[in-house]
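> example.struct
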């Protein structure tokens, strides 16, 4: 990392981008997004699913309003063009692929929403799109839909029973961890894909649930210890983490997440594995390579010990 580089400054610089994303999500909340929303179980069945480690969202069979989806995609392109001017050309190329009708945006959304990342990979290579930006677009296009479904699915449920590093709602691995300085170092994980957050033990790997502190390392820039990664020496994965005086509900997770991108380089230096953002923990054991890191259920006692 460049010596003058500061994550705090980068986060400050990204505040307007983060606020624009928040405003975009809020606008989307008012829209009629789904033709068919994910099925919802009774509170008792859903609570049992959570207690057993199964996330709530069943995305297959969901349908979206094509017109609303098109309008949302256009708004998102405008927002990205404003805040990522250096990527204008790449963005225009992605947008053209939709506008020209080569890719139907509502079909693209369906693939993202159902976690069919092979479809996305195929589109990226077929139309020669920038992979990082297309993935970013995919995640943020699906976010309002997932967030709306998440709110509906977690109503009346207590997420305190959830002890895993993947999202209790949509099954994606947590994208950011927050340690609350003023609340006994309480740790919260955040899902980039649906905006859900949940409590998690502080000394534990979100991926393999390793809780041996000798195998967990905190790596941070020397002068910015509040911005760091927790590296697991057991599974070679990592999670970005912010220590903050602000309580969870006052943190703009998107801004912090985007501002901490430079720490991915530190993780590479540590020899960590880097997953695609689209990786989800599937229920189907044959369905996903990330099951190499399948999580075992720990007893409640050992979970709480490390909090
Ligand atoms: Zn989620
Ligand atoms: Zn691990």
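> example.seq
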């Amino acid at each position: 990392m460049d010596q003058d580089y500061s994550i705090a400054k980068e986060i400050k610089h990204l505040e307007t981008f983060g606020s624009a994303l928040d405003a975009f999500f809020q606008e989307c909340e008012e829209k009629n997004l789904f033709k068919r929303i994910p099925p919802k179980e009774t509170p008792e069945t859903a609570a049992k699913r959570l207690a057993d480690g199964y996330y709530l969202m069943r995305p297959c069979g969901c349908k979206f309003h094509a017109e609303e989806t098109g309008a949302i995609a256009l708004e998102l392109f405008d927002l990205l063009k404003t805040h990522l001017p250096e990527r204008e050309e790449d963005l225009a190329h992605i947008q053209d692929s939709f506008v020209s009708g080569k890719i139907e945006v509502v079909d693209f959304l369906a693939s993202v929403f159902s976690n069919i990342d092979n479809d996305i990979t195929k589109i990226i290579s077929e139309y020669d799109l920038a992979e990082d930006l297309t993935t970013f677009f995919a995640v943020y296009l699906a976010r309002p839909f997932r967030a709306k479904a998440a709110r509906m699915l977690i109503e009346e449920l207590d997420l305190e029973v959830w002890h895993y590093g993947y999202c209790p709602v949509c099954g994606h691995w947590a994208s950011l961890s927050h340690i609350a300085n003023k609340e006994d170092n309480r740790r919260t994980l955040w899902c980039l894909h649906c905006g859900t957050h949940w409590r998690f033990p502080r000394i534990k790997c979100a991926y393999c649930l390793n809780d041996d502190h000798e195998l967990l390392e905190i790596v941070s820039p020397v002068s910015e210890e509040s911005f760091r990664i927790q590296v697991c020496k057991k599974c070679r994965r990592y999670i970005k983490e912010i220590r903050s005086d602000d309580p969870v509900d006052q943190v703009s997770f998107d801004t912090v997440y985007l501002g901490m991108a430079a720490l991915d380089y530190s993780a590479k230096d540590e020899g960590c594995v880097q997953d695609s953002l689209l990786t989800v923990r599937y229920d189907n054991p044959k369905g996903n390579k990330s099951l190499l890191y399948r999580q075992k259920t720990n007893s409640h006692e050992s979970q709480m010990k490390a909090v």
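> remarks
The first helix runs from residue 7 to 13.
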